[in-house]
Design goal:
Length: about 450
């Protein structure tokens, strides 16, 4: 390249390019005003560009840019949290009386149990109030006529004839009082003692209640179940466990308090009103049914009485004492038997329109009435059906669901959280043919 300076016109600069270089470059003349800076392309510009195009960085940047564009243009829906209830997997089906059984309705109305639990703020507090009520109905006696497993009959005999039972009768009255209020409960047999396990929707677990002594047990503010207590005894881990009275008094437990829990069995049946319990009295097998004369019932302290029911014993690892002659199980699912559960499924996604189909399935809830939902913390409402079509907002979306029973109890909460990213280059159109009316949450309920 050669430069020629025109001395006759000092206000101009010209760049002349030799003819040979026209093969590679085009000739140009640039005129600029006086006092302006030179504008030029460096000699190595084209060679540097060529090297960049041939280098790997060009392709890396290109791929990254294409990926960003693709991601921005692609609508996405994915799960960020899924909290479900338990599936029913027990080897047996727990038998319960219909909670609307005439004897249960009579018990609830005659004993004014709604007033008994009125001051309780939660389901668990109401259960403790029922336990306290059952405990205070009579003082235990060591000699009495053993009546059928019927709370009304037990109460009548205690009040009319001073026929006062012991721990088993307290347990029966308490359990059937719970059933009359729509609360699931089961009998728990221990060496020399009889208590009740109640299903707590508040804590999503079975909790031991001892109506005879009017106590339950807690650790770190959480009430304990029978297997937990039995394991604590065998492993000698009782530190931090308290026995809690109905008035809220808390006392640290001693190991001897748990001696009776060294062997733990549950009764698979809580339907003794419709199917009276079978007993053996002085080697004679019979059904313990109502008698017109209570003195025909077995007399504790005189007769040899054996209760026959479908008890299942917990086979605790490390334990060396069990209830003999009973089916044993080391499977926790046979004892957890979770009630009033909700299972949430992401059944289908429609990313282009930002919609999903959620299926909310109640499980192991005999008194199920409806599903309640809470969308993005906007408050609990009734869900019209199990299939929920949900229009998502960009970003995080949360849906909570739970079972509501005919007795007004609300089960443990299930949750599904989704993240939705729409196509950032186009507006989400409304569906031309809606699959289903999206808003399926009606009848606002208080939180």
């Amino acid at each position: 390249m050669t430069f020629h300076f025109d001395a006759k016109s000092r206000d101009k600069y010209s760049f002349e390019i030799s003819r040979k270089s026209l093969i590679m470059r085009s000739r140009f003349t640039m005129k600029v005003p006086k006092q302006s800076k030179n504008i030029f392309l460096p000699d190595n510009f084209n060679s540097g560009l060529s090297r960049f195009l041939k280098s790997g960085w060009f392709w890396v940047i290109g791929i990254l840019l294409a990926s960003v564009i693709y991601f921005a243009a692609t609508p996405l829906i994915f799960i960020t949290k899924l909290q479900n209830g338990e599936f029913f997997v027990s080897q047996y089906r727990m038998a319960e009386d219909d909670f609307n059984h005439p004897r249960l309705k009579l018990l609830r109305e005659r004993e004014k149990l709604d007033q008994v639990i009125a001051s309780g703020k939660s389901q668990f507090e109401k259960i403790v109030l029922l336990r306290n009520w059952a405990h205070n109905q009579w003082k235990p006696s060591e000699k009495f006529y053993y009546p059928p497993w019927d709370a009304v009959e037990i109460l009548d005999l205690a009040r009319k004839y001073d026929n006062r039972g012991f721990c088993a009768q307290h347990a029966i009255v308490f359990l059937q009082a719970c059933q009359s209020m729509g609360i699931h409960a089961r009998y728990v047999d221990l060496p020399g003692h009889f208590v009740v396990g109640i299903w707590s929707d508040d804590f999503n677990k079975w909790v031991i209640m001892d109506p005879s002594n009017n106590i339950h047990y807690e650790k770190d503010g959480i009430p304990l179940g029978g297997r937990q207590i039995s394991q604590a005894w065998w492993e000698n881990k009782i530190r931090g466990i308290f026995k809690v009275l109905s008035d809220g008094t808390r006392k640290p437990v001693e190991k001897k308090d748990f001696d009776v829990y060294r062997a733990y069995s549950i009764d698979e049946r809580a339907n003794q009103l419709s199917e009276p319990v079978r007993v053996t009295v002085n080697n004679v097998h019979k059904t313990l049914s109502h008698e017109s004369d209570y003195r025909k019932y077995p007399l504790i302290g005189r007769d040899d009485l054996v209760i026959g029911s479908a008890f299942r014993a917990w086979k605790n690892a490390g334990a060396n004492e069990f209830h003999k002659g009973r089916p044993e199980s080391a499977d926790p699912d046979d004892f957890s038997y979770a009630k009033n559960q909700i299972i949430l499924f992401l059944a289908r996604k429609y990313p282009q329109i930002g919609r999903v189909k959620i299926v909310a399935e109640p499980t192991n809830s005999e008194t199920f009435q409806e599903i309640c939902g809470n969308l993005n913390d906007m408050g609990w409402v009734s869900v019209a059906r199990k299939e929920i079509f949900w229009d998502l907002d960009p970003g995080r979306n949360k849906l909570e669901c739970r079972v509501r029973t005919r007795f007004g109890w609300e089960g443990p909460i299930g949750e599904i959280s989704l993240f939705y990213k729409p196509n950032l280059f186009k507006r989400r159109p409304p569906p031309e043919n809606p699959i289903e009316k999206p808003v399926l949450l009606t009848e606002k309920r208080p939180s």
